[in-house]
Specification:
Blueprint (H helix, E strand, L loop, with lengths): L11 E7 L2 E2 L2 E2 L8 E9 L19 E5 L2 H6 L1 E4 L2 E7 L3 E5 L9 E3 L3 E11 L2 E2 L2 H7 L3 E7 L12 E4 L5 E9 L4 E11 L3 E5 L7 E3 L1
Antiparallel strand pairs: 1-4, 1-7, 2-3, 4-5, 5-8, 6-7, 8-9, 10-11, 10-12, 10-15, 10-17, 12-13, 13-16, 14-15
Length: 210
């Protein structure tokens, strides 16, 4: 495909699907997942409806993470020269990856997305166990990574008040410094519009990670 002859309008991008790797093992494409990795091969002109231009969130060659569904696969994905491509809006891109291994350290949220980590609060009467907390709704969140265009007064470590009906789950490995080994971590991502507020100062509240 001669991508230099393709012109996309607005904030659209074309990505070529890329295999995910776990360590040295390639993860098969036919597994049941809700996300994909792609390499950006074409970027739109980023022109707003009023004719003004805004800087692109991504550049050619960037590895990006995005969620997928049956509708996207049916209407936005196509094959060309034995490769799979998808046409996406930049707002659909959740993060930029430094390599095709999905882990916390490689994950940079894009645009308006905020990554948060659920936790349960430690109280004087004891600790509410994570599974119990999820069942009763007593689960809290702290921001851990923030997209460059979130433009919101939130810093990593802030306890954040989220619209829990608009959060999306993320699971990835993260280095546990105390243990010196990887730990599968449960996170969420959410658009900045559904971050309703903060509690205290970053790192102020006593928490136990879920």
């Amino acid at each position: 495909m001669q991508w230099d002859k393709v012109k996309l309008f607005g904030f659209r991008v074309t990505v070529e699907k890329v295999e995910e790797r776990v360590g040295r093992i390639v993860v098969p494409e036919n597994r049941q997942v809700l996300y994909q990795i792609g390499r950006v091969v074409c970027v739109g002109d980023c022109t707003q409806p009023d004719g003004t231009k805004e800087e692109s969130l991504v550049a050619l060659g960037d590895l990006v993470y995005f969620q997928t569904n049956a509708m996207m696969a049916a209407y936005q994905q196509y094959e060309r020269d034995g490769k799979s491509y998808l046409n996406l809006h930049q707002g659909d891109l959740i993060a930029r990856l430094s390599c095709n291994i999905i882990r916390f350290e490689n994950f940079e949220p894009l645009g308006r997305w905020i990554i948060a980590e659920p936790f349960v609060r430690q109280t004087a009467s004891g600790i509410l166990l994570p599974d119990t907390a999820k069942q009763t709704g007593h689960l809290f969140f702290k921001a851990v990574k923030i997209g460059s265009r979130a433009k919101i007064d939130v810093q990593p470590g802030h306890e954040v008040i989220l619209n829990t009906g608009r959060i999306n789950p993320l699971f990835m490995n993260r280095l546990d410094i105390a243990q010196g080994e990887d730990k599968l971590t449960e996170l969420v991502y959410v658009d900045r519009d559904f971050v309703l507020g903060t509690v205290g100062e970053p790192g102020e509240n006593s928490v136990v990670t879920a």
